[in-house]
Design a protein that fits this description.
TIM Barrel; 22% helix; alpha/beta; 24% strand
């Protein structure tokens, strides 16, 4: 059963926000698109290669109305809700609803450990399904994979061959309906060319992504 928070007005409902900023989307099929990023605070995982661990604790409580107003001030058509883990705060559902109602293209970057059933279906889910090298793969909810739609995307961060084969097996086992299967290299341990070769040989339906925000030194 889907559980939604009691609806409050956006003036009284509040959410813990780490930062709001504009940049270009560095990953997914939308890589390179200008976007406003709303990074929510808090995370339920401790991935070994996390590059936004500050979002687990840093943040400011803001009314949803103020968050939406700030996001709209950038005058960008794409809004990315990220974290930490944004769905850890149930108020995120109301924020997503409101941004969708304002006509923005809304992307929700979430890990695979929290049920996605209640996320507004106008939003696009990017599910970062944690591989073994993260130390968190045992906390993934495989039933989430069946809830993805063609507009959604699933990402596997790959540090080694074991991660790659694990991701391949997950996709083969569950056949998620996601329109894109993304492979993202851990820059410190995974050679990009090697990952590309594995994808060509063993996972031709996937998209290998270069993480533009890191290539160009963006946020």
């Amino acid at each position: 059963m889907n559980i939604r928070p009691a609806i409050q007005s956006n003036k009284t409902a509040s959410i813990n926000v780490c930062e709001i900023f504009s940049s270009v989307q560095g990953e997914t099929s939308m890589a390179g698109r200008p976007a406003v990023f709303i990074r929510l605070s808090g995370c339920n995982l401790q991935c070994s290669w996390c590059d936004t661990d500050y979002a687990a604790s840093e943040g400011t409580r803001m009314c949803i109305e103020d968050v939406v107003s700030k996001a709209l001030s950038f005058k960008l058509p794409l809004a990315v809700i990220t974290g930490g883990e944004p769905l850890l705060q149930i108020q995120a559902l109301q924020l997503i609803d409101t941004l969708c109602s304002k006509g923005l293209d809304v992307v929700v970057e979430t890990n695979g450990s929290i049920d996605i059933s209640s996320v507004n279906r106008r939003a696009r889910i990017i599910m970062d399904f944690k591989t073994p090298s993260s130390g968190q793969s045992g906390r993934m909810k495989e039933e989430n994979l069946k809830k993805l739609r063609e507009k959604d995307e699933i990402k596997f961060v790959v540090a080694d061959r074991n991660d790659f084969e694990w991701a391949k097996d997950i996709v083969s086992k569950h056949s998620p309906a996601a329109g894109e299967i993304l492979l993202s290299p851990v820059s410190e341990s995974m050679d990009f060319r090697r990952l590309c070769r594995w994808a060509v040989e063993r996972m031709p339906g996937a998209r290998v992504q270069a993480n533009l925000h890191k290539v160009f030194g963006l946020r």
